[in-house]
Structure formats: structure tokens, C-alpha cells
Design goal:
It contains twelve helices and four strands. With 334 residues, the chain is an alpha+beta fold. Helix 5 packs across helix 11, helix 7 packs across helix 9 and helix 7 crosses helix 10.
């Protein structure tokens, strides 16, 4: 098949989890995990979204807010499932566990996960949105230009974000998650490039993808720089509040950008996507073949890739094509 063939949007997306991968297609998602005994466990579930069926999901810049919330909920569910295979069986029940079980009974785990998600989101807002403002405000007596202060705050926000990504990439467990992240991207790229989903084809596909969550978060940082530059208030309290209040707007705009990037490959989109693709060099790593097998299992649980290749590229996959050929050179990454 032609290596230079244009990629075509498939609609599937995913996320790396602990020793596994989640893949989502429409209202169905699958989490495939490599268990400690080496076997692959696959769980398939439905998730329709918090605003399923609402006309709000058809409105640009509004739908992205709810898509972002859905991704957080689905991501937490997938992480909990993957972590369940690696829990310490000898861990003792804590007082907090007993309180939660008594108050919420069968829903205790969901409630706890929800609280963890909210606390994580609050911490992220504090570090990436509020902290840069407070740091730059220390220089207000020395820098009189409001425009320069806004630019300095935005640059600091991006530096903190990139620095955070770089620091966690040094952790051993995170490196393995990043390898599964690479396997997730490679699977999607393989399919959208029109190649049969085999281990060899996936291994030689790119580990970077324009619809990646890393790119989305970087767009969030960049969009915030622009909005905070033009939307200003004098009162320090209002400055903090407006940064928090604009987060849904920022998420909505960033979602539309990443959505466009996933459906187009023109020169403007490639330029806009370039910073996110560069950052993915930190958040994705080359996976091994066992990780790719997990990714393929997740894809095949929710997505008929053979039917997709026929519909999108016009050919049927012969079973003889599924025999892995000798490994060739890797595809050039964007």
C-alpha cells in the first residue's frame, strides 16, 4: 500500500492506562489490560455522555465543554479498571474506606473517584491557571505595561505545563504509560493510513497523532494566553475569578481546534498542530510488540477496521495480508 496515502478520519480515539489502553468508538469503549499473568483482559462498556441527545452537542464551542467532562469521566473509569489488576491484595481497609462504604454503600467507589477527579481538576486549575498570575503579579511594581505582563503570564503558564510534562516523563511508571500512549496512536494511525491492523504495520506507524489529548492541553494553554491578553480587569480578585470562569470557554475553543486538526491535513492545520506534535515527543514513546497487541485488542473490541478500510479506502482485506511481513522502516513522523 502507498505509504504517502492521505489519512482519513476514523472516529476512534483512546487513552493509555496502567498497563493497557482504552479505545472509544461512538458510544462504546473497550479497555484492554495486560494482566500480571501476561493475559490480555478486555472490558467493553457503553458510555453515552452527560449531554447525550441534547442539541447543545451540535453547537460549536459549546459541545467541547461537555466533551471535555466526558473524557475526564471516561478516563477515570478506564484507569480504575486497569488499576484493579494491580491493587495490593494485602492492603488493609482504612478508616476513610469504612466511612465511604458506610455512607455510600455500593456507590462508594464511584463517589470516591468523583471526588478524586474534582480535586485533581482543582489542583490543575490552581497550578496552570492561577499560579502563573500570582507569580507575574509580583512584578507589577516594576513592569508598567499590562500587555507585557499578560504575555509574561502566558509564557510562564506554558513553561510550567511543559516543565510538568517533562518531569513526569522521567518517572519509570509514567514511561510505560507513555509507551502504551505511543501504541494507541500507532494503532489509530495505522488504520487511518489505510493499512491492515497487524503488529508489524502498527509498529511502523507514527506514534504522534493530531487529535491527541496532549495537543488539546497545549491548545488550552495557548488559547488562554490570547484570551487573557484581551480580557482584562483591574481588581485582583476579579482577575483570578475571570481566569477560572473562562476555562469552559477555553476548553470549547481548544476542542474545535483539535476537532478540525483531526479532520483536515491542509498546510494551515499542519502549522497549528505542529507545537502539539512536538510536545508528543515527550508524552509518547516507542512501544514493544506486546503493548501493540493490547492496543489492537482494544481497537478490535469496538471497531470493525476491515469494514472501515473497505468503506474509506475501497478494498477488502484478504486474510493473507494479515500475516506479518518482515519489519520495515518506520513511517516518518509529522
Amino acid at each position: 500500500m502507498d505509504k504517502k496515502k492521505d489519512m482519513k478520519y476514523s472516529g476512534i480515539g483512546g487513552q493509555a492506562v496502567l498497563e493497557g489502553i482504552m479505545m472509544k468508538n461512538k458510544d462504546q469503549y473497550a479497555v484492554a489490560v495486560r494482566k500480571p499473568d501476561g493475559e490480555i483482559e478486555v472490558e467493553v462498556e457503553h458510555y453515552v455522555g452527560i449531554m447525550h441527545g441534547s442539541k447543545l452537542m451540535d453547537i460549536p464551542f459549546i459541545r467541547g465543554i461537555f466533551q471535555f467532562v466526558d473524557s475526564l469521566i471516561l478516563g477515570m473509569r478506564s484507569l480504575n479498571f486497569s488499576a484493579s489488576f494491580y491493587e495490593d491484595e494485602e492492603a488493609k481497609e482504612t478508616a476513610a474506606d469504612r466511612v465511604f462504604n458506610k455512607l455510600f454503600k455500593d456507590k462508594a467507589e464511584k463517589v470516591f473517584s468523583g471526588i478524586v477527579m474534582l480535586l485533581s481538576l482543582a489542583l490543575a486549575i490552581g497550578i496552570f491557571m492561577v499560579l502563573p498570575y500570582f507569580v507575574t503579579s509580583l512584578f507589577e511594581d516594576y513592569i508598567r505595561s499590562a500587555s507585557f505582563m499578560a504575555i509574561m503570564e502566558g509564557v510562564l503558564r506554558i513553561v510550567i505545563f511543559v516543565g510538568y510534562v517533562l518531569c513526569i516523563s522521567l518517572m519509570k511508571d509514567i514511561r510505560r504509560v507513555y509507551m502504551y500512549h505511543g501504541a494507541e496512536h500507532k494503532c489509530i494511525n495505522c488504520i487511518e493510513k489505510g493499512r491492515p491492523l497487524t503488529v508489524k504495520n502498527v509498529m511502523r506507524s507514527s506514534k504522534q497523532h493530531k487529535r491527541c489529548g496532549t495537543s488539546f492541553l497545549l491548545f488550552v494553554m495557548l488559547v488562554s494566553v490570547i484570551l487573557f491578553f484581551f480580557i482584562r480587569v483591574e481588581n485582583p480578585v476579579y482577575r483570578v475569578l475571570i481566569r477560572i470562569a473562562l476555562i469552559p470557554v477555553i476548553a470549547g475553543i481548544s476542542y474545535e481546534i483539535i476537532r478540525l486538526a483531526g479532520r483536515s491535513n491542509n498546510i494551515l492545520v499542519r502549522i497549528i498542530s505542529a507545537p502539539g506534535m512536538w510536545l508528543q515527543r515527550l508524552t509518547t514513546r516507542e512501544p514493544d510488540e506486546s503493548m501493540v497487541e493490547v492496543a489492537i485488542a482494544a481497537v478490535e473490541a469496538v471497531f470493525d477496521w476491515k469494514a472501515y478500510l473497505y468503506e474509506a479506502f475501497g478494498y477488502e482485506v484478504d486474510d493473507s495480508w494479515l500475516v506479518d511481513e518482515p519489519n520495515g522502516e518506520s513511517e516518518d513522523e509529522d
